[in-house]
Amino acid sequence: MATHFLADTAVLTGRTLRHITRSIDTIITTAITPIAMMLMFVYVFGGAIDTGPVSYVNYMLPGILLITIASGVSYTAFRLFNDIRGGIFERFQSMPIARSGALWAHVLTSLVANVISLVVVVGVALVMGFRSGAGVLAWLAVAGILVLFTLALTWLAVIPGLTAKTVDGASAFAYPLIFLPFISSAFVPTDTMPGPVRAFADHQPVTSIVNTIRAMFTQQPVGTGIWTALAWSGGILVVAYVLATLVYRRKIS
Fold it and tell me: In this protein, which residues make up the domain named ABC transmembrane type-2 (predicted)?
């Protein structure tokens, strides 16, 4: 049974990955847009923001990486909605394939596409002057956090992908996710913000994740922040997975 599920999921994942390679707007949105934002923040606003001894490109890269993920998962909801509307899932149900394979294919495609986008963004950051003395273990830890966060947001994206009535509704859920890093420590220190805004920024998930990744890049102690970051990402993942699975079962029943 497990072998059957894995084989079906692999085939269906290949199908959704081919759709990405044929869609230039997906590549532009998930990679080029965050890069454009990075260029703007570093070369237009960076000189006006005091980040101490840390260069601004080093300071803001973790936030750009999270925006890259948020931009990418919006396409998961979009692709899933199109498959639902096009009757693809109904066709799959009439075939001898694992029912959950189609859903997992979209999740794995999101993970692969986002990893590629993240690598591209980091590559551009290196050209812009990003440097890190972090060792292999620190880089692996950063990668693990980003993958966990990607999975959490991807399963969150599955829900509107299955329930939305329009294409705009399916992808619009990502807008708050893209905006959230702007009210965090991603681009400016939170101690420069007004009281209520700072309170929100200090206690929302993006700040803990950004601070943890930044500390790893700069070889600083991560403290208890890493557990907060993992708790946020893991908690969102569990809740989103359970809700998405329930919605999917009702949808195909």
Answer: 25-251
